[in-house]
## 1
Amino acid sequence: MRLPPYTSDHPTRAAIEAMRGRMVIEFGVDECPHCQRAAGPVAVALAAALPYLRLEDERTRPLGRSFKVKLWPTLLFLQDGVEVARVVRPTTAAEVMAGLAQLGPSVESYQ
């Protein structure tokens, strides 16, 4: 799986909080060496069918600041719009999988 480039088209914080289910948001920038190094492990770990937003961030972007993002990449793991885990500058798929594990089993796994 190859990750898409970061997008500058951000939803609002209210829209994210209104989302239901599990999702992952990654904040970073394409030129960031830490983001480039993390892309492989992130792609492997996120191969699961899970909504995933890859958002371009900078100090002036309100969404990243509302989540108190300070380093790139930062992955937020959300359940029903609420952050349940965070992984900053992952270097292995295991780190990302640990964040996913905090989301718990999906509803689909019970059907």
## 2
Amino acid sequence: MFLVRDIMYCKPGQARPMVQKFLALGKLGQNMGFGSMRVMTDVSAERYWTVVTEMEVESLEKYAEMTRKSMELKEFQEAMKGYHDLVDHGRREIYSIEK
């Protein structure tokens, strides 16, 4: 099992629109069989306007396959339309969950 964490450093004042995009993606992803996505904003972080998402996935192969398929869907494309305008930069972290 893996934890996939996306960390987005938004442009000033653009965290809320990014949150809305991620919440929409989370709903679409659950309908496709992805696990639930947690969306968080900074209270105290490295930078202001930070938006973080977390999702647990069974395997990296399944995650990569579902990500490819989702980006082919018009609903996903529409939900992410213009997100580059909201973000200064970001990164992805992937952790193995030790049980």
## 3
Amino acid sequence: MESINHTHTHSHPHPNYHPPNQKKSGSFDILNPLRRVVDGIQVKHNRIAHLICQTIPCCCPFERKINLFGRIFDIPALCKLNPLYNEFVGLRFRALSYLADECGEDVTKYIC
């Protein structure tokens, strides 16, 4: 029985493939400068790292279940609507990593 090998000539699995959260080339992202600023923040002081971990929640504070007149209403997490959500999550992770790895601190109080 013969086997057939098929090779793609594209560098991506599909010609219209774009990685998640990546803009198509030529598109304009007005928030890109702000994204770069947040991504460029380096955590080098434990007081700043603690402030970041206290300020940026570990889970979305807007997700709620509300009991109203015997009916339960679920308010979904709205954090993904924040256009800088991924950058803030990354900053919080860098702060947690700094506290744990560089300062040797217990960060379990900052983890949900």
## 4
Amino acid sequence: MTELLIKGGTVYTEDGPLEADVLVADGVITRVEPGLALTAKGKEIDATGKYVLPGGIDVHVHSRDPGFPEKEDFGTLTAAAAAGGVTVVLDMPNTVPAVDSAGVLESKAALARSKARVDFGLWGLIRSTTTADELAGMAAAGAVGFKAYLAYSFSQSRKQVLYSPGSDDPDLEPPADYGTLARLAPAVARLGLPLAVHAEDPAILAAFQRPLLSYSDLLDSRPPEAEAVAVSAAAAVARDTGVHLHIAHLSSALGLAAAEDAVRSGTSLSLETCPQFLFLTAEDFDRVGLAMKMLPPVRTAADRDALIDGLRRGVIDMVSTDHAPHTDEEKSRPFEDAPAGSPGVQTLYLSCLQLAKSMGDVWLAPRWVSQAPAVLAGLEESKGSIASGFDADIVIVDPAARTRVRPEEMRSRQRRGALDGKEFDFAIKEVYLRGEPVTRAGKAHGRMVRPALVAR
């Protein structure tokens, strides 16, 4: 038996911060209390003056692998995650081939295992043609849940494109619509898995389509009404069928209000938002540049403030990144040609610690980044907490050090992100995955996580 002892830190527990030691044996936490000592061969880490936090879980990343490894692959994705204290990433299914069957999911899992430095889970894709049997097959293969993109068409030769009703391109199929959700939600509910949606109503987007020559055009083309309508419609399906609905990358005050209405009416619903929506507004585009071109877009100060307040009140459950890098060359093209999306996983934990500190309670951060994501993914019995019996996924943070986001220190293939230049009042010092130190240049030893199908 090999042990790890983390001594003298301030440990985040479900009951709040505790001045304690953490003892790990063979990758699992065995005791959390003051005054511990090694009982077998092992290593002792002095964490005096530091925070000892559960590893982050980013429920919304895009590895781009397979299909577009020049943008990102599982190696660079998980190297960035490791550098940022994120020990589990849940990868979205819009790769090529799209993860719409058990066979594709198993193939993608094998590819990820060969490269991943941290643990990973895989979302399955809901297409307009998906069947209940296909969902069951993906669940049996280990899918953490299913994702529907209400505003995007998919093909095997292209990643995804904004859907235009009436398109005669034979290579494209319509996106999953509300009818698809209503048809498949009972099957998802029976499987005990969440149904995640990219909530933008395609009819509203189609009505506001225009050439995207500037950031103002982007905002005008993605009005918050599209988000609010999609949230309300998807929630009606969830309320009627009992499926757990998860709204991805919530970006607007109007969308938040629609989600709160749904919760009040009895919908099983969880919400994620992203650091870019919590730290930036549309006015930052002139400074940030094309790293801020993403979908949905960063909106107004009023939207930002509403989302922060939603986190403060506990209405928004978690923060993820929608980590979606491209090559630096692609992001340097003219506005209309530059693809939407930016990296973010490496700065997730630090940004949430900073935001929580500004609210006067730094211990909110691990709730947003670890505990709530673990529940969504069905991992709450093994991940997301520092407690006896849990995997020793541990992040040691120095609250007396500072970190400045610099492109040369980013591990993603796209080095410049939306938070480039941001300074945080914390620094990540050590990251452990199942008790083993994780480094951005370390070996691939990540595992695929599978949800425990417990009642949510």
